[in-house]
Amino acid sequence: MKAEFRKGIRHGIPIALGYLSVSFAFGMKAVGDGLTWLQAVLISATNLTSAGQMAGLPLMTGGASLYETALTQLTINLRYGLMGLSLGRKLDDSMGTLQRLIFSFADTDEIFAVASSQPGKVGKAYLYGLMLTPWFGWTIGTLLGGVAGTLLPPFVRAALGIAIYGMFLAIILPPAREKKPVRTVVALAVGMSICFRYIPGLNRVSSGFTIIICAVTAAAAGALLYPVEEEESR
Amino acid sequence: MSWRAFLPYVTVMAVVTYLIRMLPLTAFRKPIRSRFAQSFLTYIPFAVLGAMTFPDVLYSTGDLRTAAAGVVVAVFLSWRGKSLLTVAVAACLAVAAAQGILMLI
């Protein structure tokens, strides 16, 4: 039991290190956008999701409706639902309803990926360990970025601004290279997003709805053009 | 930002995100039957991240030229399958290097 917990902690360390740098950039950006460092930390500690939090910032500071905020988070984080369906089949009997309620909080892309890649079933001791280190990494990184980010020289802050997008590219490009359907979906979403930024009229659509419209349209087009086989859907 | 304005946002974000993660692990334990829904859910993460990355990444450093340098390096390394951390750090370094070059010329 203890050995499993420690193994989870250990497997979480590389995730935590990755989170540290990205959440540092998030904390810095949040404070730069007018939030306090405590607010930035509170977002990270309760949300634990890079893309959702990044998209949430302009909604908050721009005074978007809560309806738009909820719908944006739903679209961006829909992938977690799919991951949950897949991971559910991998949990052993120690994961009762209460344990599932707790673990759900930290089912991020990276934690999901590591848990899924374990041989056989996974139990609560391992998963609790695995969620702990990344949560600390994400929260502490945000704290450091929020508090110390503004003290950094401007050229360092500018360079860190691109960190999270580098991470996004590292997630989408390898599968886009391998699979034509993914490539098509990404190209379509990017093309639409560019139109929504630069075409007069379209560029009046707020950031949350832009993401929703582009992502839903591109994913639906992909689903119509290239329906996945049963096994392919993770 | 005032706490009065902030708290409703953070609450909505946290609750929506938690529910999406929690419901499939607890309530709906049956696999999705619809092929369209399965396919849609497979593609949505890529569509979301694509739409969030472009064109926003070009404005992430405050200078189109340094951002472009970062994008080129990040795209190249991602395409080669490098890890998230490697790509993120290399993109930052590329931006820093581009800024250095711009200051010199």
Task: Return Rg of chain B in Å.
Answer: 20 Å
- Principal-axis shape of chain B: flat
DSSP helix count of chain B? 4
Number of strands of chain B: 0
Q: How is the biggest beta sheet of chain B arranged?
A: none
Q: Please identify the structural class of chain B as seen in this structure.
A: mainly alpha
Number of strands of chain A: 0
Element-by-element helix/strand order of chain A: HHHHHHHHHHH
Biggest interface between protein chains, with counts per chain?
Answer: A-B, 105 and 76 residues
Principal-axes geometry of chain A comes out as globular
Number of domains of chain A: 2
pLDDT averaged over residues of chain A: 90
The fraction of residues assigned to DSSP E strands of chain B is under 5%
Description:
The complex is a heterodimer of chains A (about 230) and B (about 100). Chain A is mainly alpha-helical and about 230 residues long. Chain A is about 75% helix and about 0% strand. Chain A contains eleven helices and no strands. In chain A, helix 1 packs across helix 2 and helix 1 packs parallel to helix 7. Chain B is mostly helical. Chain B has a domain of about 55 residues. Chain B contains four helices and no strands. At the A-B interface, helix 1, helix 2, helix 3, helix 4 and helix 5 of A face helix 1, helix 2, helix 3 and helix 4 of B.
